[in-house]
Specification:
By secondary structure, this protein is mainly β. The protein has 5 helices and 23 strands. The longest helix is centred in the C-terminal third of the chain and has 15 residues. The N terminus is likely disordered. The protein binds fe (ii) ion (2 copies).
């Protein structure tokens, strides 16, 4: 199988921590922390002086010596006056769709407090503004703004635009709000809910492949789904913010607004756990709204149950593809507990009206829950890496999750399970212990050399009272499979 690097030690894993990559507009500029260049939003590198160690804070009430005060900007020669960078450095990304809330993320180039203005009117009449952060301290961040809009009406179209207040921070009592900077473009989204309409589309295992992303985003713009499920392995290994930013906020393809008008629901894949930064992925991809789950499931920020009309969408996370005891994981993975907690959540979730009243239930997880091949590693062997008789040293499918979740999915009446991970499209018929159709989405390729591992978009929509599924082969521009549930 081509381009399948699940079992490899990604060379990025050895990249020195502490290096930062500033990537924008398709131009990469790398600088160490002590380097003297930073890139602006357009990828141009400007010079900044080396930072001296922070001086000790002045004693209370002691006047700041005149010599320590910054020279007033007006006294600088005009040639030294530098126009500020654009504060907003990406289009908005709709990250978590729900019936009554929506998450909006965008990146910034300096300390800022981001906000969203939204309205049911295209002209933005009576627009409301929501700032980043909840009650108490508003969020100030020099890289990203996350805004969660709450209190929305289900199945309703909203128009919105983004902006941010530039904050000059010189100390706890020395802050200045330098005023708002806005992206004037008005985008829109439609909330989910039992009355919502439209289709869902699934992409998976894009693995930062620019060609594949380009083809996928182009096709999605044509299909116009109500929501996109990004079913794992969006990334390879993310060591720092910039790496994850490049995956989720500003993919380096010519579709900067890829998720500005169509919300993306993220289902984590095994690669999305890899790398130092993926331990704090919420810095880039917001967790789902805590209001969606009970306090005992507070750690499950990636699971979801949402309605798209008569379809209940159920999101699960199969976790890493090796056992927690694998030496590569250094004893700092707890996928066993994570999967068990999701089992409890699932039992609760399928009893909710959002599921029980839905005509169709569709579940999503990255690693398949079934494989008929005898040499397909089920991921629960001790130790998985050295078990003999299997083609791969990682889970081709997840027998543990199948055992934990299968009975609940069957009880809920799930008829379709959409997965990925194997990098080769496949449809499995229902069978004993798995009474649903299982789709395994394709690989990260659109070039003819890897024809077997073609990338897919799996599209589902209600047609004539049935759930119609079409599988688009992005490499060969054809519908490779279609059926109704
Ligand atoms: Fe993958
Ligand atoms: Fe995977």
């Amino acid at each position: 199988m081509q381009n399948n690097n699940h079992g490899e030690t990604d060379r990025r894993e050895s990249a020195a921590i502490g290096r930062r990559q500033f990537l924008a507009g398709g131009i990469a500029a790398t600088a160490t922390i002590m380097a003297t260049g930073v890139a602006d939003a357009a990828g141009r590198v400007r010079k900044v002086p080396k930072k001296k160690p922070n001086p000790a804070p002045p004693e209370a009430n002691k006047p700041v010596p005149e010599a320590n005060k910054p020279a007033p900007e007006a006294n600088k020669p005009a040639s030294e006056a530098k126009p500020p960078d654009n504060l907003i450095s990406s289009a908005p990304v709709l990250q978590n769709a729900a019936a009554r809330s929506m998450g909006v993320a965008f990146s910034v180039t300096a300390d800022a407090s981001g906000w969203v203005e939204y309205s049911v009117s295209r002209k933005m009449t009576d627009a409301k503004r929501v700032y980043s952060g909840g009650a108490g301290l508003m969020t100030v961040d020099d890289k990203i703004a996350h805004i969660r809009i709450r209190g929305l009406s289900p199945a309703t179209r909203y128009y919105y635009r983004i902006g941010a207040d530039r904050i000059e921070y010189r100390g706890g009592y020395k802050m200045k709000n330098l005023g708002p900077e806005m992206d004037a473009k008005v985008h829109s989204f439609t909330t989910l809910g039992a009355q919502a309409s439209g289709s869902f589309c699934v992409i998976n295992d894009t693995h930062e492949n620019a060609q594949t992303l380009d083809a996928a985003f182009r096709k999605l713009a044509e299909l116009k789904p109500a929501v996109v499920i990004w079913n794992g392995d969006a990334s390879n290994t993310s060591e720092n913010f910039e790496a994850a930013w490049k995956v989720f906020i500003r993919p380096h393809v010519d579709h900067p607004e890829y998720a500005s008008d169509t919300p993306f629901m993220f289902v984590r894949g095994n690669h999305d756990f890899r790398g130092r930064f993926n331990r704090t992925l919420e810095r880039v991809v917001m967790a789902r709204d805590p209001e969606e789950r009970l306090p005992e499931y507070s750690e499950l920020g990636r699971n979801f149950v949402q309605r798209l009309g008569d379809i209940a969408l159920i999101g699960l996370d199969t976790g890493e593809d090796k056992l927690d005891t694998n030496p590569r994981f250094a004893g700092i993975f707890r996928m066993k507990e994570y999967r068990e907690l999701q089992t409890k959540w699932l039992a609760h979730a399928i009893a909710s009206p959002a599921v029980t009243t839905a005509r169709y239930k569709v579940a999503f997880c990255h690693i398949p829950l079934f494989d008929s091949s005898r040499d397909a590693n089920p991921g629960d062997l001790m130790p998985a890496d050295v078990a003999e008789g299997f083609k791969k040293d990682y889970a081709a499918w997840q027998r543990t999750c199948a055992g934990l979740w299968g009975p609940h999915l069957a009880k809920a009446g799930v008829k379709l399970l959409i997965t990925g991970h194997q990098h080769k499209y496949r449809r499995d018929s229902p069978g004993n212990g798995h009474p649903w159709i299982q789709l395994v989405g394709g690989g990260p390729n659109v070039d003819p050399e890897h024809a077997e591992n073609f990338a897919t978009i799996i599209e589902g929509r209600l047609e004539s009272g049935m759930l119609a599924v079409r599988v688009h082969d992005l490499a060969n521009s054809r519908v490779v499979d279609s059926f109704t549930v």
